[in-house]
Amino acid sequence: MHKKTFKYILILLIILLFLIVIACTIGSANISLKITIKTLISIIPKIKNFINFSDINPQDYKVIFDIRLPRILISVIVGIALAGSGVIFQGIFRNPMADPYIIGVSAGAAFGATIGLLFTGNIRILNLSSTSIFAFLGAIGTTFLIYNISKIKGKISILTLLLSGVALSSLLSSIISFMMIYKTHDLAKIYFWIMGGFTNSSWTNLLIILPVIIIIMIIASFFMRDLNVMSLGDERSNQLGVNSEKIKQILLILASIMAAAAVSVSGIIGFIGLITPHIMRIIVGPNHKVLYPTASILGGIVLLLSDTIARTILSPREIPVGIITSIIGVPFFIYLLIRSKRQVF
């Protein structure tokens, strides 16, 4: 790893670790920073032989370890997944305004989650809620349908991919609206899921999505050099020995699965996959070998901050985290539009 890349990653990880500790102290239950740090340290095996933890209140331990920490870690891993897939989609489409939801991942997940909420009673299967399972299947199913629609003679048509994504997303949104009208007593549940949030976070959810996202991110990292070459255009990349069509297909599948896994436990959280890659691109440049890991970590930081605000700003009530990310993301998106307009004209 390049020394400069390592420096960026180290700085971001230190910031992330600091914010995780701070987030564990914030909430409706007042827990001091000292007790929070000692509680987190007590999780480390065999550390009890060297430090006295007798002053930790069992109730504080339960609040931090059973309620706050799994939620914080899930928000981080979801942010990492959305930002990482955002880098990939922006690289494939060669457009800084692309994001993980551009080909229907969000609409498919919302459709699946709505079916799960309305018709399965949110039962648990293998300790995972049916809503999350249906959301994941909906996101994956929609993505692969759009993928196959846009595949022409073994090649992916980017234009067809985008248009079919928009069309199918519109159709699924209409079906969701119909189901919401049909089942008005479940309207609030569907609405809050679509707006995104981590109220139902648990260690089980984390342990299920964590290996999936980590494995996919590691696999995708081996294609970042190819993504750099593909930024020169398909013709040029083929001349340099990169099979752009094959790489494009592999990365589309990996990024879609990664985003689907994240959305299945969080609901629809917009703009993380859009703004964080662009912010890091301004700081570290367009090299995907640097951009991919740094933007991913920044995505975890941004979503952790957004969720902390969402659960504390109206404490003890909380608001969907998607509202916070939209408040942050929409002005930035408008800035991107204005900037791209200036570049055109």
What's the arrangement of secondary structure elements?
Layout: H1 3-25, H2 33-42, H3 58-93, H4 105-119, E1 124-125, E2 128-129, H5 130-149, E3 151-152, E4 155-156, H6 158-182, H7 187-195, H8 203-221, H9 224-230, H10 234-239, H11 244-266, H12 272-284, H13 288-312, H14 321-344
Antiparallel strand pairs: 1-2, 3-4
Helix pairs in contact: 1-2, 1-3, 1-13, 2-3, 3-8, 3-11, 3-12, 3-13, 4-5, 4-6, 4-7, 4-11, 5-6, 5-11, 8-11, 12-13, 13-14
From the spread of the alpha carbons, the general shape counts as: globular
Number of helical segments?
A: 14
Structural class: mainly alpha
The low-confidence runs, each spanning 5 or more residues with pLDDT under 50, are none
Taking all Cα atoms into account, the compactness measure Rg is 21 Å
Cα distance, first to last residue? 39 Å
Tell me about the largest β-sheet. Answer: 2 strands, antiparallel
The level of helicity is over 70%
Determine the oligomeric state from the structure: single chain
CATH class: Mainly Alpha
Q: Quote the CATH topology.
A: ABC transporter involved in vitamin B12 uptake, BtuC
The secondary-structure element order is: HHHHEEHEEHHHHHHHHH
Number of strands: 4
CATH architecture: Orthogonal Bundle
- The CATH superfamily is identified as ABC transporter involved in vitamin B12 uptake, BtuC
Q: How many independent structural domains?
A: 1
Which band does the percent of strand residues land in? under 5%
